[in-house]
Write a structure and sequence with these properties.
The protein is an alpha+beta fold and about 150 residues long. The chain has one domain. Helices cover about 50% and strands about 15% of the residues. α4 runs antiparallel to α5. The model has no long low-confidence stretch (mean pLDDT about 80).
């Protein structure tokens, strides 16, 4: 996102701007480890604090940051439902959790297939593949689901 001044964290996953209501919503999606879901929510809010302030100043709109953080097996924080209810559209938490679990299953299936086909799990290629697959599953599956509202 282009801003008048340099902001290090200026790439949220989804930006929703409503000109009629004069609001802007920054959504960042993450599939996290099970133990740190609440911690990651707080980090995402702090990460986009400067961008939020800059957008409010540049566009003269009320801006909010919504972290959508799920554990790899569907774990959510106590405030997750509150955050998701602020996203335009009809979103069911069960469906988001199902998407996260299916993404994790897809990743595990791919990793196990690679191991069975003779790829050494200790190589840097394997770790790069895991990281890229996890990012793709997270952003594409959940990002598309949130934007479509279906």
């Amino acid at each position: 996102m282009q801003t008048n001044r340099t902001i290090p964290n200026n790439k949220p996953d989804i930006i929703i701007r409503d000109n009629e209501k004069r609001t802007c919503t920054l959504i960042d999606v993450l599939i996290s480890g099970e133990r740190n879901v609440s911690q990651k929510e707080a980090e995402k809010i702090l990460k986009y604090k400067d961008l939020r302030t800059e957008i409010q100043r540049m566009w003269n709109v009320k801006t909010k940051v919504i972290p959508v953080i799920l554990g790899a097996t569907g774990t959510i924080s106590t405030s997750f439902r509150k955050y998701v209810s602020n996203i335009p559209g009809n979103h069911e938490v069960k469906e988001l959790q199902k998407t996260a679990i299916l993404g994790t299953a897809h990743l595990l299936r791919e990793v196990l297939t690679q191991r069975c086909n003779g790829v050494n799990a200790g190589t840097s290629d394997m770790s790069t593949m895991n990281s890229n697959t996890r990012i793709a599953v997270t952003r594409c599956s959940l990002g598309t689901w949130l934007v479509s509202g279906t």
